[in-house]
Amino acid sequence: MAIEMMNDADKHLERVIRRMIMIAELSGQSYATQNEEAVRAARRMRPDLTASEALAKVDQIRHRSVDLARQVNQP
Q1: Are the C-beta atoms of 45 and 16 separated by less than 8 Å?
Q2: Distances in Å between the alpha carbon of 66 and those of 14, 30, 41, 46?
Q3: pTM score above 0.90
Q4: Where are the domains of the chain?
């Protein structure tokens, strides 16, 4: 498993994306709407990101969360 080094701005962006996904999920939004909310938040923070780049970041964070959950649940 490759370890990625993130700067503070990347860490902050990741926290905001995770938080937006969680808020949208808790409010009953669909998976697609959760992604839309997270992409909008990412682009507000980083206007240099295209919608495609922001969505790729959201997907990357979701996959990392799933991978982490699997590691925690392994005996």
Answers
A1: yes
A2: 15, 18, 21, 25
A3: no
A4: 10-69
With tokens 């799933």, the residue in question is 66
Q: Exposed/middle/buried for 8, CB within 10 Å: 0-12, 13-18, 19+?
A: exposed
Per DSSP, the three-state class of 63 is helix
pLDDT tens per residue across all 75 residues of the chain: 444 566 888 999 999 999 999 999 999 999 999 999 999 999 999 999 999 999 999 999 999 876 666 667 666
End-to-end CA gap in the chain: 19
